[in-house]
Amino acid sequence: KALWAKCMALCEGDEGKAKYKYIKERVDRLRDEKLREIEERQREEILKNKTEEEIKEILIQNKIDFYLNPKNEEKLKVLLSRSKIYYEMYRGSYRVSLESNYVVHFKDIIKFRDFLKQKLPTLEGFSAN
Hints:
The protein is mainly alpha-helical. It has 5 helices and 3 strands, in the order ααααβββα. The chain has a 3-stranded antiparallel β-sheet. The longest helix has 34 residues, at 15-48. The chain starts with a helix and ends in a 10-residue tail after the last helix.
């Protein structure tokens, strides 16, 4: 009901357009729900035969992937800044300033990812879950 009301409002009461929009939105929602179910089953299957240490490693790697997504960049900056670690893109590399005013440049994302893999688990407010 809520989705139908939303579609009617967005289509300014035009029932034909609202039906089309409703079907499109409903298909999108069902697809997203199914994808989440599949991803969850795959994750459970992967984790089923792993040791606790391997699971922790996978969760940390997933969290790093989350933070390296450009739309989550601000979240990473906030998390790092709590420990007086700051970073920015500088001339095509990751420029990281540590609390001791020591600056490190990582020329590619792989080295920056390795840095995060070492640092993130030790930061206040970081949870791999």
